[in-house]
Amino acid sequence: MAKNVLVLLMLVFAAWSAKAQELQCEVVVNSEQVQYTDRQLFTDMQTRIFEFLNNRRWTDQPYRSDERIKCRLLINLTEMPEIGTFRANVQVVSVRPTYGTGYETVLLSFVDKDWAFRFSTAEPLEYADNGYTSNLSSMLAFYAYMIIGMDNDSFGRLGGAPAFDKARAILNVASSQGAGYVGWKAFDSNRNRYWLIDNLQDPQFLPYREGMYAMHRQGLDQMATEPEEARQTILGVLGNLQRLQQQKPNAAILRSFFDAKSDELVNMFKTAAPAQKQQAFTILSQVDPTNNSKYEVLLKR
Description:
Elements: H1 2-18, E1 23-30, H2 40-54, E2 69-82, E3 85-97, E4 104-118, H3 135-155, H4 161-177, H5 193-201, H6 206-219, H7 227-247, H8 252-269, H9 274-287, H10 292-295
Parallel strand pairs: 1-2
Antiparallel strand pairs: 2-3, 3-4
């Protein structure tokens, strides 16, 4: 009898583990710039956003608890025009492990300067597919799907498509029902939520999407066992991004890529063979001149 109970408990635990939530997201709300006496409001905001992202099932995909996607949301509140109304800039970062190492590589690093929302501890933070409840919940859900999509793209060719479709649906609803909140439309900025998802779903950016699979699954995941071959794969990806940059200069997703990867690329190639180092520098200095001072280390013997 006791054995049967133990087996049942193990089965229940296994089923629960397979259905764990997708995100393991750290949330930080920085309220130093906002003058307001009731600081508990900001603690509650941080807790509510944490629970919204981490306690919800965003997809039907099976996830074990150890497979949850590590990510971070740094919400820097810049203004409270009136009580309960906030403006902020937000950094969204997600990472994934690389095979055979303890190293975590950044998949998404994006700064969204167009956050404006209402928040009250008296009102629940709700979300419904294909519906609009608030700008805050729409922005959080949008980035939840962006994080999941980027992660899935890195493990399977174009694997993030269903999540990106969800993010697009949120954008469409928010842009039509969002009471004038910015960040959802093309003309609001040249680097916002609209352009982030638009780039990822634009057929011209297919080399980027395919490159994320090649770079992570066939590159970084092989670095521990076949470093030279892995670097050569990544050089091929960078060459494709260079051509894409020439066609679509200053695209939001390309800028996000180099924000996330510039330091990692330097570390990856600074121990490479001289020919690979030179090739990496040539591509990177052309496609990402903003970080050229970082890449110059690749010229050193």
